[in-house]
Amino acid sequence: MLGPISAYRAETNTVGPEIESWRSVHFPYKTAGEIGLPEEGQVRPTMPYVMASSTFWSHVMIEHENALAQK
After folding, report:
1. How many Cα atoms sit within 13 Å of 21 on the Cβ side?
2. What is the mean pLDDT of residues 2-10?
3. Residue 12 CB: number of other CB atoms within 10 A?
4. Which of 4, 32, 48, 61 has a CA positioned 20 to 30 A from the CA of residue 26?
5. Are 5 and 58 in contact (CB under 8 A)?
6. Parallel, antiparallel, or unpaired: how do β-strands 49-51 and 59-63 relate?
7. How many CB atoms lie within 10 A of CB 3?
8. How far apart are CA 3 and CA 8, in angstroms?
9. Residue 66: its pLDDT value, please?
């Protein structure tokens, strides 16, 4: 997660739309083709994609709704 602390609501344990939220699954040195997903920049907003394809940092990004609403 990334964003201002003021967007966190402790009373409900929720965050506002100012917070970007995502998950990532790392697959070192795997390519997007090997993983079976498109690379960054080749996807619809709700689709997981591969960042840093074929590098040590290769990973699948899964963005959550709050992050997608801001784009």
Report:
1. 12
2. 94
3. 7
4. 4
5. no
6. antiparallel
7. 17
8. 9
9. 65
Q: Give the type of residue at 17.
A: P
**The tokens of 42 are what?**
């080749």
Half-sphere exposure of 67 (CA within 13 A, CB side): 15
3-state SS track over the chain:
CECCHHHEECCCCEECCCCECEEEEECCCCCHHHHCCCECCCCCCCCCEEECCCCCCCEEEEECHHHHHCC
Query: Which residue in this structure is represented by tokens 């697959």?
Result: 27
- Burial-class residue 32 by CB neighbours within 10 Å (0-12, 13-18, 19+): buried
The backbone region for 24, taken as left when phi is positive above 0, alpha when psi lies in -120 to 50, beta otherwise, is beta
